[in-house]
Specification:
single chain; Jelly Rolls; Beta-galactosidase, Chain A, domain 5; about 40% strand; globular
């Protein structure tokens, strides 16, 4: 097929389209009589064309038959596919993931001649007897498309994530009509859509037809204002018309459905006065309903009354400082690519609200219109971003970021293309109250084109703030006066604190990307929260990112989902699993990091004044809501992990940003390891909760000042004799019902028999290695260079002597690796008592020239039958020294399989920090671990070596053992996959340490429970 060259012309973006306008759906006067918040499907002027279409994939446009767009073309020979969809997710072409790099040669405006394309055909019926005009709407098509109706060319459009509207009245006939769409994979717009995402193609959002009278409201803009200090608001609506202006009848009702105002607007803007206005915010999404009617149609609009401004370095909503606890969201579904259904999208929004995410950045393009409707309804703030990113310019040959402004941002050839995209952004979403900030785009550099975009956006909508992260790099800056916020990404805490404390920092600071959530992550949410608490000019941040962008490629033979990422499809260039960096899994399940976020950003913080008398204070962290209107407090006291006392009290009156005192009427236990957990429970129904169960907003926990020691095993018989048989390489310790073999060459046990049953499937081993997390990707090189992944013991001396009711083995050894000097020198003492208990004592000295350690622990490969775990420590989620705010200290019961966290790319997971007691059980035996100081443990069906080797979780092979690692310490998690290096306080940097612990095996004929002595 011979096509016009619009797709390779930087002066042509749309042909035959209507000017961009606000998103709305017209109703007939009759269908508009429905509920205030009617869905678009309820409109008789809305005809959804999405559904099953005919489709044919071609490797280039030359293969497309000329007659394919004609109405008599036999489309039954084509495949049937769902629309919306992306053709890669349907198997027509491979997925392609790239972060920074262009996936085509950089040669604008040209794209490869072998430009894959998809031909879409569908028939629809239409009656013309109503005298209405027909408008064809596409909400999202990647990358560009040509349109025919009944064989006649209608037009062309690009900007993948913006709406395109065609007046097709003159092309439509009575009865059946043929719609043909040819979608091209690449166009000149591809150079402005180089985003960190799966690169997919097709009609991925809805297609529909609107029926409208010849004269109608073409566009309108709603703005709201509340004079400072007042309670009366003003809603202003300005109109543009198709045809001459005409009267518009209006009705405004409040959030309770009561009529506020009605009348008729003549020429000029309409201004409606709203006394005692109910203001919209993330905490109270108050929406008014506006009905606009003309003689031929009605439009239903929701209005959120709110103001947005900047003062004293803070962002104010309704004259009140706010903070963004936000997330960056790509539109992605593991099976359907860019296509997300309305039900799935609403579930995403509800999940965000459940975990105290109050803002969304639509990275890096406008989202589907429904997202904004849902954010209005549920109360989420939005940074709305234009479909502009040219990150690939930094990867051009001999290019450096600071020298590439002229490539796009300063290149006059791209100016109109950029401005067209900014216009499309503002035009469509200008009436959404949730949109507080416009973003010019992402990572395109800053130059005259972006300056022009800034002026354009401010001219189109002066009521909102403007953001653009690339404007903040000094070497790239020119005129940035129109940028309202100082936007940064992934700043380390010290650097961010210096910026916030600098008197030269006048604008509010937003972390448009932070706490990178790749794999087991993030570990630094609490640190950023503390910084936000200290610096009012830190207006919050946006997690990168919401969902793992990993494609569901079916199932393995044993039923596990195969999730693929960059490089798995033969795609080049690719960035590997860098797309697997969400705080939820590809199927929408939360990562443990999402639970961490929820409790860090709970609506209040509780502090203990006097735990003996139950005296506390509660600080309200909300901006608009008194806590007494939201919460009641439920308290629970445990003794040695078991319930002791619980109760509830009403939440005290605590206005926004204020602190209130309260007292809990509990009685203290006399002994034991005792903890108090105060849970903040909803005192009313929660619109975003998924079930009727009580909704918990968060909790605080306190250790009670009760005398008591650590957990120890009990019910053990210490009577009996011990014998030792010494060999050149081993000591054999024989006692009543047990035989242990201690390897003198490894300074550890390699055989443990209890009642004649082998309880050690592999020799126990000292270990420094953890399966690298995604956040370890940089330090991993140092760790491997230091030999941490391949250490082995060199025993210099070992002695064994029999004491009263015990055997003592002393070892002096080092941990080293081939071609390297010793890393750690260890003096280890093992004592075995008559009951078979093993007490270990380690004194370690680390050579200071080596990098900080991943961990230090001892690995035990137990029979797989040891599959039940009880522990007293931080749970129920995996926990680390910097990632445990979603956890609390308690007694938890799990299976080994349940302790495994199934990250798409295997890595360190499932550890538990701050443990005092651990017990693993098989049907016949149990192993109990205690220590003088809290320790960390991990019990998984996979070894660290297996987790290190495999690229995908579906490839993991269970060893047949339970891999137990008991750690003296482990380094934290951080967010260094894209963010700052792990903070010093979370690194295992000790060069000297001492560790005592106790291992006890027992028969389960006399079950043992943990107790405090």
């Amino acid at each position: 097929m011979k096509l016009p060259t619009y797709h390779e012309d930087l002066s042509v973006f749309h042909v035959g389209t209507e000017d961009p306008r606000a998103y709305y759906i017209p109703f007939s006067p009759l269908s508009a009589l429905g509920p205030d918040f009617a869905e678009r499907k309820d409109s008789d002027r809305f005809q959804l064309l999405s559904g099953n279409w005919r489709f044919r994939y071609y490797e280039n446009t030359r293969q497309v038959p000329e007659q394919a767009v004609l109405p008599d073309f036999p489309m039954h020979s084509l495949d049937i596919i769902p629309v919306p969809s992306t053709w890669q997710s349907l198997g027509y072409e491979r997925y392609h993931y790239s972060n920074l790099e262009y996936t085509i040669p950089y040669d604008p405006p040209y794209v490869p001649a072998q430009n894959p394309c998809g031909l879409y055909l569908t028939d629809f019926t239409c009656s013309l007897r109503d005298g209405l005009e027909r408008y064809l709407n596409f909400e999202g098509v990647d990358s560009c498309f040509y349109v025919w109706v009944n064989g006649k060319p209608v037009g062309y459009s690009q900007i993948s994530h913006s709406s395109s509207e065609f007046n097709v009245t003159r092309y439509i006939k009575e009865g059946t009509n043929r719609l043909a769409v040819l979608v091209l994979k690449w166009c000149d717009g591809t150079y402005l859509e180089c985003q960190d995402k799966m690169r997919l193609s097709g009609i991925f959002r809805d297609v529909y037809l609107l029926s409208r009278p010849p004269e109608h409201i073409r566009d309108y803009q709603v703005t709201t204002d509340v004079p400072e200090g007042g309670t009366t608001a003003f809603v202003q609506i300005s109109f543009t018309y198709r045809g001459s202006s005409f009267p518009v009848h209006y009705v405004l009702t409040d959030p309770c459905g009561e009529k506020i105002a009605s009348g008729t607007a003549a020429d000029g803007p309409l201004v409606i006065e709203v006394p005692d206005a109910k203001l919209w915010s993330d905490e109270s999404a108050q929406l008014y309903s506006l009905l606009l009617c003309t003689d031929g149609e009605c439009i239903r609009e929701t209005v959120g009354i709110r103001t947005i401004s900047v003062r004293d370095g803070q962002i104010l909503l309704n004259d009140t400082p706010i903070r963004f606890h936000g997330v960056n969201r790509h539109e992605f579904h593991a099976r359907n690519g860019y296509t997300v259904t309305s039900e799935e999208l609403e579930q995403e929004i509800r999940l965000m609200k459940q975990h105290h995410i109050n803002a969304v950045r639509t990275s890096h393009y406008p989202a589907a219109p429904l997202l904004y409707t849902l954010c209005d309804r549920y109360g989420l703030y939005v940074i709305d971003e234009a479909d502009v990113e040219a990150h690939g310019i930094i990867k051009l040959y001999k290019a450096m970021q600071q020298s590439t402004n002229g490539t796009i941002a300063d290149n006059p050839c791209f100016r109109e293309a950029i401005l067209n995209r900014e216009t499309a952004l503002v035009a469509r979403d200008k009436n959404r109250p949730c949109v507080l900030i416009w973003s010019l785009g992402n990572e395109t550099g800053y130059g005259s084109n972006m300056e022009a975009g800034c002026r354009l956006v401010k001219g189109l909508d002066p009521t909102r703030l403007l953001n653009y992260e690339s404007s903040t790099h000094p070497i790239m800056c020119q005129d940035i006066d129109g940028i309202d916020v100082l936007s940064r990404m992934y700043l380390p805490i010290p650097e961010l604190e210096a910026l916030l404390a600098d008197p030269a920092t006048k604008k509010p600071v937003i972390l448009t990307e932070y706490i990178h959530c790749m794999g087991n992550s993030p570990g630094d949410i609490e640190d950023y929260f503390q910084l936000m608490s200290r610096y009012p000019n830190l207006a919050g941040g946006f997690i990168w990112e919401w969902r793992d962008q990993s494609a569901d490629m079916g199932y393995t033979e044993d039923g596990r989902t195969k999730y693929f990422y960059g490089g798995d499809y033969g795609d080049f260039p690719n960035c590997g699993n860098f797309c697997v960096d969400g705080i939820t899994y590809p199927d929408g399940r939360p990562h443990t990091g999402l639970f961490e976020h929820k409790n860090v950003f709970r609506p209040a913080r509780i502090k203990a004044c006097d735990l003996t008398t139950g005296s506390f204070t509660l600080t309200n962290l909300l901006s608009f809501t008194d806590l007494s209107e939201l919460l009641e407090l439920k308290y629970e006291i445990t003794q040695d992990g078991m319930p002791w006392e619980s109760g509830r009290i009403p939440c005290p009156t605590a206005p926004p940003r204020q602190t209130a005192a309260f007292t809990l009427p509990y009685t203290l236990p006399e002994s034991g390891r005792c903890f108090l957990r105060i849970r903040m429970m909803a005192n009313r129904s929660v619109p975003f909760a998924d079930s009727e169960e009580e909704f918990e907003y968060g909790f605080d926990q306190f250790e009670l000042p009760i005398p008591g020691t650590g957990f120890v095993p009990g019910c053990l018989d210490e009577t009996g004799s011990l014998t030792v048989r010494e060999e050149a390489d081993a000591y054999h310790i024989l006692g009543n019902g047990f035989l242990y073999r201690f390897n003198r060459l490894s300074a550890s046990f390699d055989r443990l028999y209890v009642d004649g049953e082998e309880l050690l499937s592999e020799p126990a081993a000292y270990t420094l290695w953890r399966a690298p997390t995604d956040n370890d990707r940089y330090i991993r090189e140092e760790w491997e260079a230091a030999g941490y992944d391949r250490t082995f013991p060199r025993v210099y001396e070992s002695t064994c002597r029999i004491m009263e009711n015990a055997v003592r083995i002393d070892c002096h050894l080092s941990l080293t690796a081939v071609a390297l000097q010793p890393i750690l020198y260890l003096d280890v003492t093992w004592q075995i008592d008559a009951a078979g208990r093993i007490r270990g004592s380690v004194d370690a000295n680390k050579e200071s020239c080596f990098p900080y350690l991943p961990r230090f622990g001892i690995h035990f490969a137990l029979p797989r039958e040891f599959d039940t775990v009880t522990y007293f420590g931080y749970g129920p989620f995996e926990s680390y020294c910097d990632k445990h705010r979603a956890d609390y200290v308690g007694l938890f019961h799990e299976t080994v399989d349940d302790l495994f966290e199934d990250y798409i790319k295997p890595q360190e997971n499932g550890s538990h920090f701050g443990c005092e007691y651990l017990r693993l059980e098989s049907p016949r035996h149990a192993l109990t671990v205690t220590a003088q100081l809290p320790f960390s443990f991990q019990a998984l069906p996979y070894s660290a070596a297996e987790l290190t080797r495999k690229r995908h979780s579906c490839e993991l092979v269970k060893s047949g053992y339970t891999h137990l690692t008991v750690d003296y310490a482990m380094s934290g998690i951080g967010s260094n996959s894209c963010g700052p290096a792990l903070a010093d306080e979370y690194r295992f940097s000790e060069t000297e340490f001492h560790w005592d612990f106790l291992l006890a095996f027992e028969r389960l004929s006399a079950p043992m429970s943990p107790r405090c002595i």
